[in-house]
Amino acid sequence: MAKKIAGEICLAERPGSVIKKWRHIMKIAQRELAEEVGVMPSVISDYESGRRKSPGIKVVKKIVDGLLGIDEKRGGKLIKEFSNFPESATISNAILDIREFTEAVNIKRFAKAVDGEIILTFGDKEIYGYTIIDSLKAIVEFSPTELVKLYGLTTERALVFTGVSTGRSPMVAIKVTNLRPGLVVLHGTNKVDEIAKRIANAEQIPLILSKAKSVKDLINSLRKKFS
Is pLDDT at 86 greater than 50 in this prediction? Predict the structure, then answer.
């Protein structure tokens, strides 16, 4: 887990944005992280805003250790979540595209990118990536434990299911896992099944119905908006 986060920070064009991303995912305040690392809150703020030059390896290690240390004190929710991700997981041909964001994207902005209608939303939720999935292949190929392959680096992402008939099967598949995406987008149907809506509502998962003309248009639009 530490290697994944540190690697993403070090390889990013804007390391501060990645630090901010993971701090938000873990729901950690700047002041709390600063106290854990042993610096002033302004130092964390300066790194995240780009006012301070990119942190060196030692600073990155301290920040990552601080993030994970706080999570561990809270019961290790994120650490436990990522412990379910198999190291050997390979990208299946059921996954049509996958992207990580360095900065948060709100659901309204994402809905516009997929020509989508927001069916359910819960507050001002933000996501940090997306996975576009051939729903039939995913349901046929993946066992419930293998569904974690869909989540990339974080569950705080949109799972975009293509080729759906009603939306029920993808929502049932999500329900049987212990992981909850930040957003589900359904593409390929004109109407969302009521049971799918009930599951999304019960699990507090925002739901969007995409009206993009084709899967190709959907993929191209997302790549263009979030390249």
Answer: no
**Cβ distance 176 to 144 under 8 Å?**
yes
Tell me the C-alpha to C-alpha distance, in Å, between residue 119 and each of 4, 39, 54, 107: 33, 43, 40, 11
CB distance 198 to 172 below 8 Å: no
Domains of the chain plus CATH, in order, are 2-83 (1.10.260.40), 95-225 (3.40.1390.20)
Q: In what order do the strands lie in the sheet with 183-187?
A: 95-106, 126-134, 158-162, 183-187, 207-210, 116-120
The pLDDT value recorded for residue 5 is: 85
Contact assessment for residue 132 and residue 158, using Cβ atoms and an 8 Å cutoff = no
Nearest alpha-carbon partner for 9 in 49, 56, 46:
56
What is the bridge-based pairing of β-strands 95-106 and 126-134?
antiparallel
Identify the CA nearest to 160 among candidates 104, 73, 82, 220. 220
Q: Per-residue pLDDT for 84 more than 60? A: no
Element (H, E) at 215: helix 215-225
Beta bridge partners of 162: 134
CA distances from 26 to 13, 23, 47, 68, 200 (A): 22, 5, 18, 9, 22
pLDDT value at residue 89: 44
- pLDDT > 50? residue 133: yes
Name the percent of the chain lying above pLDDT 70. 91
Beta bridge partners of 129: 100
Q: CA Rg, the chain, in Å?
A: 18
Q: At what angle do helices 15-25 and 41-49 cross, to 10 degrees?
A: 120
Cα 125 to Cα 137: distance, rounded to the nearest angstrom:
28
